[in-house]
Amino acid sequence: MTPDEYVEAVLELVDRIPPGRVMSYGAVADALAERSGRASARLVGAIMARHGGAVGWHRVVNASGAMPPRLAAEARARWLSEGTPLRQDRVDMRTASWWPGEGM
After folding, report:
1. How many helices (H) and strands (E) does the chain have?
2. Of 2, 13, 55, 75, which has the fewest CB atoms closer than 10 Å, so is most exposed?
3. Are 99 and 13 in contact (CB under 8 A)?
4. DSSP 57
5. CA pair distance 6, 21, nearest whole angstrom
6. What pLDDT is recorded for position 103?
7. Do residues 70 and 57 lie in contact, with contact meaning Cβ atoms separated by under 8 Å?
């Protein structure tokens, strides 16, 4: 898979995450690892920072369920509008995590 194909694969996967659910950067990387030969949460984060504006960027969070501080307020508003399970200022990863192939 070329770098451009990997960017497209990340964005396609993120676009499939249902409203109210999330994946961590690492989970996105893991879900694509076999097909892509890549398994870097940091790379997924870089792709989301550069190209993620057209997809549900707020549905990809760090492993603790948080967003970078500069995005936290807007992400929280989007999470609330979608009914995403929260624990204080973070997504409740235990109940909100999604994996490709799960029911939507």
Report:
1. 5, 4
2. 2
3. no
4. G
5. 22
6. 56
7. no
End-to-end CA distance of the chain: 27
| pTM reported for the whole predicted model | 0.91
Q: Distance between CA 49 and CA 80 in Å, rounded?
A: 22
Residue 48: closest CA among 58, 37, 36 = 58
CA 72/CA 67 separation, integer angstroms: 5
Q: Which domain holds residue 21?
A: 3-93
Backbone angles phi, psi at 86, to 5 degrees: -120, 155
Establish if 101 belongs to a structural domain: no
Structure tokens at 78: 């989007």
In a domain, 38, yes or no: yes
Tens-digit pLDDT profile for residues 11-70: 999 999 999 999 999 999 999 999 898 889 999 999 999 999 999 999 999 999 999 899
Domain contains 20: yes
CA distance 104 to 101: 9
> How many folded domains does the chain comprise?
1
Token code pair at residue 41: 């949460």
